[in-house]
Every structure is written in C-alpha cells, then in structure tokens.
Amino acid sequence: MSACALLTAARRCLEACDPAAKVALTHETARRIGCGELRREDPGGHRPADVPGRPARPVLVAPRELAQRSLDHPAGRAALMHAVAHIEFNAINLAWDAVQRFTAMPGGFARDWARVADDEARHFMLLRGRLQALGYDYGDFPAHDGLWTMARATADDPLARMALVPRVLEARGLDVTPGMIERLERAGDAETAACLGIILREEVDHVAIGSRWFRWLCEQRDLPPRETYFRLLGEHMGGRIRCPLNRPARLAAGFDEAELARLEALCR
Q1: Around 199, how many Cα atoms within 13 Å sit in the side-chain half-sphere?
Q2: What are the Cα distances from residue 242, in Å, to 2, 59, 168, 237, 263?
Q3: Does any domain span residue 68?
Q4: What is the DSSP string of 129-178?
Q5: 249 exposed, middle or buried (CB, 10 Å; 0-12, 13-18, 19+)?
Q6: Domain assignment of residue 113, yes or no
Q7: Which residues neighbour 10 within 8 Å (Cβ) at sequence distance 6 or greater?
Q8: CB 88 within 8 A of CB 204
Q9: What is the mean pLDDT of residues 180-195?
Q10: Which pLDDT band, with edges at 50, 70 and 90, does 66 fall under?
Q11: How far from 154 is each of 86, 133, 162, CA to CA, in Å?
C-alpha cells in the first residue's frame, strides 16, 4: 500500500473478516489517518467494497427470531452483551464504509469517521471481554443485520446515510442504553454496566458527527435540514420512531428541541 492510499486502507479495514484482525487494522489505520500519514488517493481508480468482511458466526436471523432472555442469569446477560457487541462490530464497518464510499466529501469527513471506527473497535473489544468473562464469545448467539440493511439502502447518498444511520439507528442506542445499564446494575453486573456507560458517553459524539455532516450536506444542497430529515425518515422508515427519547443525550448529539418534539409526536 502506498503512503497516501487512504481509500484503499479504509476498504481493507471494511473487508477484514476476523474480528481481532479488523480491530487491529482499524486502530492502526485510524492512527495513520489521524496523524496525516494516509491521504486520499485519486478516487477515479477506487471502487468501494459493497460487502463488509465478517466472520462465519454469528448466524444472521430476522430480528423477530432473537429470543429475549432474563438478565438474572449469566446466559441472559451474555445474550444482551452479544447483541450490543454485534452492533458495535457493524458500526466499525459502517464507519469505514462511509470513508471508502463517499469520496467527494471533504477530508475532515474521512478523519471524523476513521476516529469513530477506532472508538467502535474499542467498544467491541470491551464487550467481547465481558462476553468472555461470562464464558462466551462473539458468534455464540445469533444476530440480525439491520444496520447493514440500512447501509445498503443509503449507499448512493451521504445525506441519507448521515440522516438515517447516525441520527436514527445509532441515536436509538442513546435512548435504550440507560435502561440497559439500570437493568444490569439491578442484576449485580456492575462491570458490564460500566462498559455501557463508557459507550453511551462516546456514542453521543458519534451521533453529533452525523448531525454535523448531515447539516453540512443540507447547506451544500440548499435544503432545509429539519424538513429533509423528516422526509427521509418517512421515505426509509415509514415515519416510525420508538420512544421514549433520551432528550439530554440527543440534544448533546445535535438534535434540537423542535426535532425532538416532532419525533415524539410520531410515537403517539
């Protein structure tokens, strides 16, 4: 790889299948991008990968096929941790996909999403460590492919990607994680709850990055951000939103009060 081949490096991270290899390559590539060692090559010869690398397990199933388990037992806590670890693994891929796919975006876009990929890789390893402490590992439970389904649906437009992945799917994590932390603390699993606390704080910044680039793209295209967001929400999500919302976290992540009120109205 040449010293300047940022897009090639991002694609390599995306296509790595082994979780440990993907994490190691992510950390190294994000470091090199952050310190300026990797710069974007001419995108004319670059072809983005359309399929992320992933291990043979976990088996992917429809969301309705995933069993709900009690957190009072180690297997139930492990199943929850596996579900969140799978989200973080997909989030690594989503971040690198944004870097290697949307080549017309400014250089700051690639730096931002490389940093997000680095965080998501660390989150994945935190959760994998908790899984292993409970006697399990990543791949031991089935999982669903909802995040990558949305990646495919938004592959042609960074505006739709920024609106619907960080500001819908990842923002949902801001809403539900506090409840998971409370449930784990009640179950006596303070270590896993602490891991989720770290992830929650850092995911606010990730959603904020999505909010910032979404509004930048709206400005470039002379589009009203709020109306554009709700139009895309209707087109891709049928206007459906789950509540309650974590208002403080969403405000910190770049939502405004008017957006939150309109989102809450969709829940009724």
Answers
A1: 31
A2: 46, 26, 10, 11, 9
A3: no
A4: HHHHHTT--TTSS-B--HHHHHHHHTTT-HHHHHHHIIIIIIHHHHHHHH
A5: buried
A6: yes
A7: 29, 96, 99, 100, 110, 114
A8: no
A9: 94
A10: confident
A11: 20, 37, 9
Answer whether residue 120 is part of any domain: yes
List residues bridging with 60 in a β-sheet: 143
* Per-residue model confidence as pLDDT tens digits over 218-257: 999 999 999 999 999 999 988 788 899 999 999 999 999 9
Q: Per the structure block, which two tokens stand in for 44?
A: 């004319």
Based on the structure, what is the number of domains in the chain?
A: 1
Is the link from the previous residue into 58 a cis peptide, with omega within 30 of 0?
yes
For residues 174 and 250, the answer to whether their CB atoms sit within 8 Å is yes
CATH number at residue 121: 1.20.1260.10
Encoded tokens for 40: 């974007």
How far, in Å, CA of 206 to CA of 218, rounded?
Answer: 19
Q: Could you tell me the pTM of the whole model?
A: 0.95
163 belongs to a structural domain? yes
**Closest-CA residue to 15 (of 58, 40, 50, 45):** 50
Quick one: DSSP state of residue 104? T
The domain containing residue 107 runs over which residues? 74-266
What tokens does 251 get? 């405000």
